[in-house]
Amino acid sequence: MAIEKVRTYFKSFGMEDRIQEFAVSSATVELAAAALHCAPQRIAKSLSFLVKEHAILVVTAGDAKVDNAKYKAQFGAKAKMLSPDEVETMIGHAVGGVCPFAIEEGVEVWLDVSLQRFETVFPACGSSNSAIELTIPELEKYAGSLGWVDVCKGY
Q: 8, 51, 73, 76: least CB-packed within 10 angstroms?
């Protein structure tokens, strides 16, 4: 189960106890915000794309929408999201629990600047009913990101 992979990942940093699991679904931004009692924009959603035959994750704020022109300028390709089956196979987590932790080798992780307006954000933890609260520096560290990008509208 993907949440166990994420729990093991965070255990190596002594942080597994910070993972929150809910009795309700947190599979969408709205559901996660309700489960966490926070603003939807503070949900760190992990979007899965295919770029030149390899998978990438772009972690954005919950209210952010990808700007196709910015995306193409950044990655040199049209934004092509992975299908649900491709997400699970190529990223290592099912849709609803996708996160940048304990993912398949070779998946690039990028953080969108839409997240920088918050002190803490809530990415999922590999299941459709989990999350962890991280500061932006913690997200940078534990997501293993390659850096910041600006690929969303209005940021």
A: 76
